[in-house]
Every structure is written in structure tokens, then in C-alpha cells.
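Checked the freezer inventory, then went back to the computational side. Two predictions to log before the end of the day. The first one is the construct we discussed on Monday; recording sequence and C-alpha cells without edits.
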Amino acid sequence: MNVTLRQLRAFIAVAEAGHFTRAADFLELSQSSVSTLVRELEENLGLRLFDRHTRMLRLTEGGAEILPLARKAVADLDSVIGSSKQLTALGRGRVSIAASSMQAALMVPRFIHQFAARFPGIKTVLHDVSQAEVLQMVRAGEVDFGIGTAPGRQHDLASRALSSDIFCAVLPPQHPLQRRREVTWRDLADYTLIGPRGGNPLREHLDFALAREGIALVRHYEVSLPLTIMGMVEGGLGVGVATTALARLAEGLGLTLKKLSSPVVRHEVSLIFHPERSLSPAAQSFRDLVVAQRSGSKEA
């Protein structure tokens, strides 16, 4: 059986017009074309749909039963076609993003604002989660993509760098290290340090880079969120270890970021995605906006 949408439209038009010629005019087809489509539908269904007389055309009992089903089928197909056109034209849709806490607070909102202004019919959902959860959600297909620390040696995920930050010391007001022109990692040995817990990808990246230089940091306080690091430094508990991504937050709390050298350690914020999953038109457009904005900011 090979029932087509054109056959169903022809059948509905003839049934409603009660005449092949009027139906043909409505469909902007020739009368012979409409007759052929109805005949093909009858052959496909194995059912006579109309009783044809010289001056009268009437639905058979079977045709009367098929008509509401045909109307519903055509309406459903029209809805699918309309929805697909809207999705392709970005008139509607949904984008879901997972971002680690600082990117969710300081980077992603600007992208959402720009995207919403351009495509108001698309809903954007932001999940502000830990860095480990970003990778998990992308891997499980729970979000279109993530923004955070690249997955490193986890080959089931792919990434594209968006920006590069530098690790630094977070200092309270009047701290002795603020007077130094240059602060090295070994200069931190005499101070109480505050940083991310073990297992955090940002910490793992830093520890690996420092280990190559024979440096091992001892954190006296280990916490989960960058905001907590800032709060503990502001509360006088020690010196924080973070990246320049937190500059705006540090400034708001009256803290100072001092870039650390010997070695200078950089951290990339990346767009993280599953290489084997296709993005919807809406998600693709959001990703293009993010990449374009970050590329432009780096060139500037």
C-alpha cells in the first residue's frame, strides 16, 4: 500500500466539493489529475470511496468512514510539515546547555541574551552544575553541549577552545604579596591556600602542569565552588588559587588577582560536545553564536 498525501488531499477536496471539477479548481489541478489521484487511493485501500453517476457524486459508506480519518491524517502531516519549517527557520525550538558554575554566571548569560534577541521563539535552558556534571550531561545526551574545562583524555567527547585564562593567586586587601612585581608558585608555600577539591578537572589540570616543574601545592582548605574560594579569602582565611575568569567577582569583593609565574599556567574554557550527535538547527545556531563571539573577543 502506498497512500500519498496528494491522494488524501484530492479525496477530501472531492468529498467536500461534491464534484471533481470544483475540487480540481480548488487544488489547482486538472480534473483528470484529481480523478487519477482518487482512483489510485481507492486501489491502494481496496475500497470504493464514491458512487459516480452522470449528474451526481456521492460518498459510499466506506468513503464516509474514511473521510474523518483522512482529514486527521492530513492535518497531522500539515502540523509536522509546519513544525519542521519553523524549526528550520528558527521560529521555535529548544537549546539546552550545561555550564560549570562560573561560566554559567559570568559567560553564558550574555550569549543567552544575544540569542534570545535574535530568535525569541527558541527556549534556552541553562544547567549550572559542577564541572564533572557538565561532562556527564553531554556524554548522556541530556544537553546539546557544555561549556567548561575540556575533557582531556576522555576520547568519547570533543571540544573547541573558546577562551584562555591564567591561574593566579586571590589576595585579600593589603596582603604582602600584592607589593611584589612578580609572584611565583613557590612564593605561596608560606601561606594558607584555598582551592578546589581533588577530582576537579581545573585542579587536575593545574596539578599536572605544576608537577612537571617539581611543584606540589598543599591546599589547607578544599571547596567545591569558586564563589566559596572567594568568600573564604574575603573572610581572611587565606590565599585563593583560581583563574582570571573570576576577575569581575574578585573586584566586587575588594580582592586582588595576582598572576602566578614560574610557570605561567593557562586554562582553556571550551565548548564541549558529543562528536557523534547531530545538533538541532536551534542548537547549531546557538553554538555558532558562541564560537563567533569568543573568536571576535580573542581577535580584539
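The second is the one RB wanted added to the comparison set:
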Amino acid sequence: MAFRTNISLVLVLFLTLASCSKKTVVQSTLSKPEPARFENLRDSVIQIAALAKGHVGVSAMLLETGETVAALNPRDQFPMQSVYKLPISMAVMQQVDVGKIKLEQKVAVTKSDFVRAGQHSPIRDRNPDGAEITVSELIRFAIAESDGTASDVLMKLAGGSQAVQKYLTDLPVNDLIVLNTEKEIGQDWQVQYRNFSTPDAAVALLRALHEKRGLSESSQALLLKYLVESTPGAKRLKGLLPAGTIIAHKTGTSGAQKGVTAATNDIGIITLPNGKHLAIAVFVSDSPADEATREGVIAKVAKLVVDSQQQ
């Protein structure tokens, strides 16, 4: 009897191990294609990035699932330039939501607020003696037209860079630093590098916007409207995507020093053909390539990632 019992125990143990082994094989087989697909996409992104001959960072996430679908140097720091107008505007909209600021209130914009000549500012160019502009219009100028003067006035209205940084910390979005005004960035080449973001942080910001974290539904809708209407960067994220693709995006661009451009950036939320949303950030820094090449890198990466989600 003892012998037969031992035989039975051995058989049960054998069958249990065999069953576990089969499950392991099935799970392993199912999980392999996704890492392989990710690596293949990364290899293609690396090839495209090489065209810039600089420092390129990419992060892309499917917002409905939180899945990272593409990454290259995602935790490296890149100068944001005008990309930082988005977190500043979000911080202002949060204060609108709590009643500290009203969209229709007018704000005095004086000559002392103007960014220097050479920095982009339609407000300065159209109102050389200054003007009174509503908060809503200031946000439109900052987001849709990338106006540096508007951004600085909004930062002051929000309570300064520390208030913007606290808003980001509360979201939470880390590794995105808003430290200086546009005017200060325009006065010292090195200052732009202190106002940086990682690609992952930029995507985290876009995800917070998509999920209405720290924002009401109406505030989110207004920001997305201005982002979709944004005119700069037509040859960047949207450059190679089908006409009519909805892209809520914010660009950032520096000047050049000794033939090297510090920042050619674009971050945004792309509505895919299936209705899902892709948050993507592409930063091209310290590149000696011409503008067409730098913007082409962003456009090619965006098309590659979008196409990968339709396979």
C-alpha cells in the first residue's frame, strides 16, 4: 500500500509540474512579440535620430492604456524653449478653476513686459506701446502663436516660476523645470538649458492634461482647442501625417550659436484613426543640421510611431 501511495504522489507531482511548464511556455510565447516590436521600433527611431547629428529624445505613450510604445533617451534633459508655455498656461488655468483668476479679466501688458527683438512676440509687434489683453487671449497667444511676452505675463499672473513648479509637483510631473522667463532666456544662451524637460516628463504632462488632472473639463477643452489651433511647427509632428489628423501640440525652438541649434521640439497628443490617443514628445537638441532636417526627424519619428499603432 505504501508503495502504491508513493507512486500516486509521484504521478500527481509530475502532472502538476507538467501543467505549470505548459503555462509558462504559453505565457512566454505571448509576451515575446511586444518587446521585439518595441526594440525594432527603437532601432528605427535611432536611425532617424542620427540624421540630426545631435542629441535626440523621444517618448510616446498610448494614453488609453498607459503603454509606452516608443522611447529614446527618455530620461535625458532637453531645453524646452516654448514647450514650457504649456505648463505655464495649465498652471494659470488651474487658478481660473479655483476662482483666483478670471478668463475675461484684462491684464496690462507694458513695454517692460516685452521680450527682446528677435524673440517671437506678436503682442509686442502689434502693440508697440502696450495693451490690455484678457487672460483667455494671453493663453491663446502663448499656446497658439507661441508668444514670448504672453508667456511671461502669464507666469507673473500665476505667481512666478515657483507657483508653476508647485503646480507641476502636485500633478505630479517630475523632471520638468520652469525656472526663468522668456526674457531671461533670450538674454543668456545657457539659461535655456536650466529650463528643461525629459521626454518622459513631457509625456506625463500631456497625460495629465488628457486625464484632466489639476484642471476642470472646460479648462482642458480650452487648452486643447488652442493646442490644435497652434500654427508653429507645421512640418514637425504633423508634417508627414495624413491631412485632417487632429494634433494638439506645442513646439519649442531656439536660435543657433556657432552653427548649432539648441532646441527643435514638438510635443503633443495625436488622435489616432481608431479614436485612441497617442502622447508623444520629440526633442532635438544641440544639432548642427539645417531646419528641414531637424524638423524632418520629428516628422519621421511621429509617422513611424503612429504607423506602428495601426499594424
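For RB: The longest strand covers residues 260-271. The chain has one domain: 35-308. Let me know if you want it refolded.
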